[in-house]
Design a protein that fits this description.
It comes from Actinomadura monticuli. This is EF-hand domain-containing protein. Pfam families: EF-hand_7 (PF13499). This protein has 85 residues and is mostly helical. It is built from 4 helices and 2 strands; from the N terminus they run H-E-H-H-E-H. A two-stranded antiparallel sheet has the order 1-2.
C-alpha cells in the first residue's frame, strides 16, 4: 500500500490475515499483515513488534492490540513511512 489505509481497510486486512477465523493474529498472520502494509522487517524486528503488540501476553494480537501498535509506531494518519523506517 502506498497510502495509509482507512479504518475499514485495516479491519478488512486484519480479517483476511486471520486465517484461523478466531479474531486474533498469530505471528505468521501478523507477518502477512505487515507484508500487505508494505512494512518489510527482519524476523527479529517482526518478532519484537509482535511481542510489544501482544499486551495481554496470550501469544496472539487482537484487532485492538493491532491498532494500538500501529498508533504507537506512528502509522495512524498521513502517508505511510518508508519501509524499514
Amino acid at each position: 500500500m502506498t497510502t495509509r489505509p482507512t479504518e475499514d481497510d485495516l479491519l478488512a486486512l486484519f480479517t483476511r490475515a486471520d486465517l484461523g477465523g478466531d479474531q486474533k493474529l498469530d505471528l505468521m498472520e501478523f507477518t502477512l499483515v505487515l507484508d500487505e502494509l508494505g512494512l518489510a522487517w527482519t524476523r527479529a524486528e517482526t518478532q519484537d513488534r509482535f511481542e510489544k503488540a501482544d499486551g495481554n501476553l496470550d501469544g496472539f494480537i487482537s484487532y485492538e492490540e493491532f491498532r494500538a501498535i500501529l498508533d504507537s509506531q506512528g502509522w495512524a494518519g498521513g502517508p505511510l513511512p518508508a519501509a524499514g523506517a
